[in-house]
Design a protein that fits this description.
Elements: H1 2-8, E1 14-20, H2 27-44, E2 50-57, E3 66-68, E4 71-73, E5 79-81, E6 92-96, E7 108-115, H3 121-131, H4 146-163
Parallel strand pairs: 1-2
Antiparallel strand pairs: 2-7, 3-4, 5-6, 6-7
C-alpha cells in the first residue's frame, strides 16, 4: 500500500484479491482469517480501500455445454453463468475463459467471499475475463486471471529453490521472466 502511494500519490481506492487453492469447506476459516489480515494491514497503512476477495476454484465437477441435445459442443470463451446453477445464497459465478482443443472444457468457479466495492456482478465478471488475457507469454486467454497464474509460478519457483539443498537451484526457462514482473 505504501509503495502504491509513493508511486501514485494516493492509496488505491479499490483492491481486488483473487485467492486460489482453498477448498469450499475451508473458505470460512482460511479466507475469513485472510480477510481480517487484509483489514488489519489496511488499518496499519492508515488507508481504507474498498476491497473484494474472490476464491478461485478450478477443480469443479460442473460442466457447461453449448448446442442442442445430441449435438453438444464446448461453449465459446467468455461464457459466464451467474444464476441457475450457482448457489442462491452465495455470490458466485462460473466462467469459461478459454476454448478446449480436445475434449470438453472445464469452467472455473469464482466465489465472492467479501465485497465492500459494491460493483455490479457484470463488471466483476468482465474484469475477471479480461484478466485471463493479461498473462505475459500467452497471446490468447488462460483459464484463470493472470495474477493467479503468476502466483502459481512464483510458488513453484520458491518451492524448487527451497527443496534443493545439495545443488544450486536450476531456474527453468518458463520461470526466467518472473524476476522482472511486477506483482500487484
Amino acid at each position: 500500500m505504501e509503495n502504491f502511494k509513493a508511486k501514485n500519490g494516493v492509496f488505491p481506492a479499490r483492491v481486488i484479491i483473487y485467492r486460489d487453492g482453498v477448498a469450499d469447506s475451508q473458505i470460512p476459516s482460511v479466507c475469513g482469517t485472510e480477510i481480517q489480515q487484509f483489514k488489519q494491514g489496511f488499518a496499519q497503512a492508515s488507508c481504507n480501500p474498498e476491497f473484494m476477495f474472490l476464491n478461485v476454484n478450478k477443480r469443479v465437477n460442473t460442466r457447461i455445454f453449448a448446442g442442442e441435445q445430441g449435438n453438444y459442443r464446448n461453449p465459446q470463451p467468455g461464457l459466464c453463468v451467474d444464476q441457475g446453477i450457482t448457489d442462491k445464497d452465495t455470490y458466485e459465478f462460473y466462467m469459461v475463459a478459454t476454448s478446449a482443443r480436445q475434449g470438453m472444457t472445464n469452467p472455473t468457479r469464482y466465489t465472492i467471499v467479501h465485497d465492500s466495492c459494491g460493483a455490479p456482478p457484470d463488471q466483476i465478471e468482465l474484469l475477471t475475463y479480461k484478466l485471463c488475457y493479461t498473462y505475459y507469454n500467452v497471446s490468447g486467454s488462460i483459464k484463470v486471471p493472470a495474477a493467479v497464474q503468476y502466483a502459481h509460478r512464483l510458488a513453484a519457483l520458491v518451492g524448487d529453490r527451497g527443496t534443493r539443498q545439495q545443488e544450486p537451484p536450476k531456474v527453468h526457462d518458463h520461470y526466467a521472466n518472473l524476476s522482472s514482473l511486477y506483482f500487484i
